[in-house]
Amino acid sequence: MNDSSIALENSSEQAEPTRLGELYSWQSLLFVFLTIAGLGIGIVYIFGVTWNGDRLLEGQYYWLFIGLFVAAAFIALPARRGQTRIPFYDLIGAAAALGISFYFSNYAWDMVQSSWSHVPLGTVMWLLMLEVARRSGGLPFLLVVVGLGLYPLISDQLPGLLMGIPYSFDRMIEAHVFRAEGMMGITTKIVAEIILGFLVFAGVLIATGGGAFFIDLANASFGRYRGGPAKVSVVASAFFGSLSGSVFSNIAGTGSITIPTMKKVGYPPHYAGAIEACASTGGVLMPPVMGAIAFVMAITIGVDYATIMIAAIIPSLLFYFGLLLQVDAYAARVGLEGVPRDQLPSTREVLKRGWPFISVLAFLIWGLLYMRWEYYAPWYACILMVALSFLQKDTRMTPRRLYQTLRQIGVLVTQTAAIILPIAFVVSALTITGVTGALTSGLVSLGGGNIFLILLFGILACFVMGMAGLAIVAYIFLAVTLAPAIIDVGGLNTIAVHFFIVYYAMLSAITPPVGAAAFLAATIAGGRPMRTSFTAMRLGVVIYFVPLFFLFQPALVLQGDLTPLIYVLPSIIIGIMLISGGLEGYLLGAGRVRPWLRFPLIAAGFAFSFPGLMTTVIGGVASAVLVALVWNDNRRLAQTA
Fold first, then answer.
1. Is residue 543 exposed (0-12), middle (13-18) or buried (19+ Cβ within 10 Å)?
2. What is the mean pLDDT of residues 533-557?
């Protein structure tokens, strides 16, 4: 195993927010057993395996899945920070989750046919899920889930747009726990069916050295250029984030390697942390895998996952293009060099060692786009990856590595389930009270039918709801309230509108005052959290305005007539170059930018990149003048020197 593999494995173990302890501790063994049982039942259901001619019912499988992985959450996720031992009450919670869920599984058919329910046990399950929500997402997440989940109890007492159909506590529990509006609906389907295979694939790929391969490949490709370690961080985090689908595990996994390397070549701690935070945030919407929110979008819109994956290509590439430009501009302005070639891995050796990972990713993309296997594709890719792992000693799936892989998969599935499953209470509350339609019409009325005012309210709503680090919750809520209002008033493309909401909901991960991703990266880098967050906001500037661009020009998400890409895409690329040059004080191909020219360059770049004829013409003329000034200024300085 090479140095990157060892470092990545060690960093992942250190950053893992669980209390599983040693590899073969009793809690780890119990956790892996629950994981194996959950994955086994998932495979049986997803692939339609029959037993005596019978298949598992959807409700039966959902309750078995919930019971096993909620129990795993009580074993793995500590009740408070620093807790390393598992207290007796967590064992009771795990046993209760298992017992109640298995009991409900026996009545799955009755739930569908005769609206069967058991309110006392349903209440216990509801409370267990709230505790899991607190452990996985913290107090802010719990407050969101409880606050919106209990909304049906007081919905008739609220004014105006917030007034809805009231429910008693018993009826609310029935809807939240036993009906398709709640835990038997979309949220459980997302985790237990749609993204389960992708989580397993991510675990297998990381366990066999895929994460280390992408870091080595990025080092071999970009490490020798100016600011090389920062460019390595951007590229590696893009790949790693796409595979893991998690901003925070991405920062913990790759950041613990890339941040110290960036600091070593001269990047300040706050800047190194900001680069990693931005790169990890963008990875969640980087094809081919992306994060769970992409699957939620596919189900909400009613399109296949391949459509979402294709639509995400250009916006994600533009984001990383802007980030790389700023990283390069900073290195050029400050004079940071790359890593000496003799300290970097050979590209040929990296590709020779890592061809199985490239082959598996190509197979996955082929399965998603051409074969349309949807959520079967990652399962087939896992089989191929395990088979190819035996071709090399470093990746061979030994019994110990298989056990480690199952534990890693269990952590990924448990953490994802613990975040997504409680959202069922939010979805249920919004659905059964009928408030979503009122909020949609209210937003239209509040904006006076003006699409730009509605978009402004929407951006504010996305940001505020995303501040708790809950982009999925924000998206689900706004997809049923804000999206219809924007589509109805503006007549805009549905996929573009939903991507618009997702991008702005993700902004809070790097934006003050919360900036959870930036704060985590600052902790690893040893920088000041707020300064890191403001720097990340500047570095990730593309994510702030590109959603507006593809909202008004859906060709950027590969929807409708693609002819405009011929002239829109080049103008956006040039605009991003100008904006990056203005922000960092160095314009690629022209040189340093004087302070008084930086803001005009940013404004001209934005105008030139905005998809409108008049703004593009004005911005183009202004940009040409400003670039000429910068170029001439640097030429005179060079002659003087």
1. buried
2. 90
The rounded percent of the chain whose pLDDT value lies above 70 is: 93
CB-based contact 176:182 (threshold 8 Å): yes
**In Å, how far are 4, 231, 512 from 577, measured between CA atoms?**
32, 16, 25
Distance CA 598, CA 589 (A): 16
Strand partners, 51: 54
d(CA 381, CA 570): 36
Per-residue pLDDT band at 394 (split at 50, 70, 90): confident
Left (φ > 0), alpha (ψ -120 to 50) or beta: where does 302 sit?
A: left
Per the listing, tokens 């006076």 go with 448
Residue ranges per structural domain of the chain: 3-179, 194-424, 568-641
Q: Which residue has the tokens 């019971």?
A: 67
Element of type H or E holding 592: strand 591-592
Contact 282, 313 (CB under 8 A): no
If you write DSSP's letter for every residue of 368-414 in order, what string do you get? Answer: HHTS--GGGHHHHHHHHHHHHHTTSTTT---HHHHHHHHHHHHHHHH
Find how far residue 252's CA is from the centre of its chain: 14
* Phi, psi (degrees; rounded to nearest 5) at 185: -120, -140
pTM: 0.82
HSE value, Cβ hemisphere, 13 Å, CA-based, for 631: 10
Confidence class of residue 36 from pLDDT cuts 50, 70 and 90? very high
